[in-house]
Amino acid sequence: MTNEHLIVSAQGPVLSLTLNRPDSLNAFSPEMILGLTEAFKAAGENDEIRVVVLSGAGRSFTAGGDVKTMGEASPVQVYDHIGKLNECILAMKKLEKPIIAAVHGFAAGAGFNLALACDIIVAAEDSKFALSFSQVGLISDGGGLYFLPRMIGPYRAKQLFFSGEPITAKTANEYGIVNYLFQAEGLQEGTMKLATKLAAGPSKAYGMIKKIADQSFVASLDEILEQERITQTLMVQTVDHLEGVTAFKEKRRPIFKGK
To answer: What is the mean pLDDT of the chain?
Structure first.
């Protein structure tokens, strides 16, 4: 499946979503956001897909909102556009499969926040991250005001929101935003190795880990403990659990089926 602004392709159990507006540093368009939302929902319904990789074509991951068109939209149009972006972010968080953001060049504005909505961020060593909203008199959207304070604390997050100054991938890694750094020329290979490794894992367990870990920010300890209790009762009945235990006893690598 492809559209003008998004390339969707599958390599076995790994679904690759490539933002495809390279002439504008992959700035968001309605077609791109709608395509992403549909792709994430479809991935949730496809048992063959076990990991999603999100990347950008050309020189950058994504510049986020299209600055060239800012100031032209009416308040109603802005409200509608951000609503569509919110649907995409929620589809990402509801997908019970790991999503990897592979960042090169710039991840700026809502593009930074799109990466934050993923489960793992890998980045080229020479890439940069920026929350540039304040530079045009705006607040962060796309979930940044939710994700980033929880990730790095409110004080450091507000520093990035207020200043709008870019940070290097190395700094983002030190802050705990980026999980893995790769040399620019090795980003694609390193990302696919990670994706392939995750795809070979117990994807049902990964999905539940993602779901409960995300809910832990808004749920009480009592609620999370009960979710763990109920979910574990279900997990011990899965094919993957039986395979994991059998492989351990037989001293071999488990072959998980995602069932």
So the answer is: 94
